[in-house]
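User: Show me a protein chain along with its predicted structure.
Assistant: Here is one chain, sequence first, then structure tokens.
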Amino acid sequence: MYSFVITTSKGLDDLLAQEIAGICPHLSLKTKPGQVIFDGELEDAYRLCLWSRLANRVLLQLAEGEVKDAEALYSLASSVNWTSHFSVEQRFVVDFIGTSKAINNSQFGALKVKDAVVDQFMELFEKRPDVSKELPDIRIQCRLWRDRVGIFIDLSGQSLHQRHYRAKAGEAPVKEHIAAAMLIRSGWAANKDKPLADPMCGAGTIAIEAALMASNQAPGLKRPNWGFSRWKKHQPSLWQQLVETAKAAIKTPEAPIFANDIDAKMVNIARHNADAAGVADLIEFNQGDACDWQLNCAPGYLVSNPPYGERLGELTALLPLFSRFGEHLKRHFANWHLSLLTSNRDLLKQLKLMAGKEYQLMNGALACQLVNFILDEKNCEIRDSAPAGQDFANRLNKNLARLKGWLKQQDTDCYRLYDADLPEYNLALDRYGDYVVVQEYAPPKDIPEAKAKKRLMDALSVMPQVLNVVHDKIVLKVRQQQKGKGQYERMAQRGEFIQVRENGARFYVNLWDYLDTGLFLDHRITRQMVQRSSKGLDVLNLFSYTGSVSVHAAIGGARSVTTVDMSRTYLEWAKRNFTLNGLSNLYQYRFIQADCLEWLREHQQKYDLIFIDPPSFSNSKRMENTWDVQRDHIALLSDANRCLKPGGKIIFSNNLRSFKLDDAGIADLGLKVENISAKTLPEDFKRNPKIHHCFVLTHE
């Protein structure tokens, strides 16, 4: 009699226990999160290796005990007679799971057990077995929980979910044992005489697992290697007898199985995987849009792992897809059962279906829910009720009507459409040519995350129609206070730019890779002011970002324009903006990569106009000290004042809402001040008068 631990994904332990009870009904089982424990014979372990569709590993316990320190772990591992399990010529590996105060590093734990194993062999044979992570003959697993460690032989070798038929997979594949769990939880596994269909099959895992179930094929039959194959206590004749019995149990399925995907490449991958599993002739594959796909058969079960929209930008495409899919199901799949796996429950609400049971599942590291629906008469009713998000749509239409006359007078195709006008829709919408950038402000702490997420879904669902923009040109971002490195980190890696126009200038903007796009729309009037004021002047643009102010100064006829920023990326972007506008005189236009504060402190050249738009706060590692605009603005303006020609001007701006100009400090510098914040506030930003502060400081 041996002690065994059978592992699975968290949330499946009860289901695994039910499965084990069906395979080995004589066993007395105990469950823990992600585990089923029992005492049994080797034949029981073999049966589970061969037949379990839900297990990850079958572990045979060799030792178990309390471990208060590293030496206790070594002693526990040394208590096992390792030579009875494998020889000195064989290779082994130790997997260690869990940490404690005593063993606070799993690699250290594995090393300590490995030392105990090789030391035992050295004592007996003066020779040590090799360690091999890639192709071990024996896999030892240690599991630490609190201060207790269990030491096991892993009879499965590799995880049992690896059925060895899936050579290729898509971007977000569902693991084989999760697919099996979905089929069981959907109800189909108990009704295999009904058709099974996956409308978004990807690599085909769900359909293949269904075909294996329907034909009563043991999932371990195709597996070439096992953790027990070279184990000294392996009983080959017993194992072979079980394999032959499993082969003889294969039967013909009672009902058809269908698999469909919109991507022809994925359909080919699914066919290849099904062929490797030996069930290709049991599945009917189709390539097409799930929202158009129909079946001519009796009602059965639809089970699928549709896209979740884990990346924000994917939601804009998925919302209309799920809405269309819901209508299609109601029209063409009446009386079918539907089971969908998702990590975004709000996406499924777009189906407009009343859910039945829900089950928690872990798909890899992602917490998901399997949601069951019955497409009965009530669920298939087509409702013409007002869409969710109608209040948001009404406000958008109102804003468009208000801005219509103003936009006709503007020479720009980039502007703000909406800025948290309705508290429950805490978003900002900016138009950039054919694109719309949606910035979701992080919700206040008193607003539940689920409610805020639903509002976002509702808003995204109505935007394409109201704004007449296709869903793949809606770019979604989350805007919240950035701290530390987060101020500068990229959000994506697309490297894609589009061109926009503004008052005779053209600019490259990147709508995807950073929180900001490369053009601050609230400074449109300020840039015009610089353009009108720059003719014949020497202009300095500090904290230049992508050089939009510099471009307007150059277009306005500045004698020279000096552009300074700490970021090489932004300076290269600024140069591209100059080239886009036909501004290529290298002697007239200078680009300097430097810490603006240090550079200005040591600079001696004089300028007629200096534009300064610093961040509110910065702690960049390339700066000697931190920067705080409220605390440090007088020192900055003092250095800028020293670089002004007599009668010269500083345009100083920042977007710290609570900012207060130090009037006494400015007076000490001998600068005359004009607050032009209101004058530089464009019509499309008037809902937010504190979007920036802007001052003209004149050197008297």
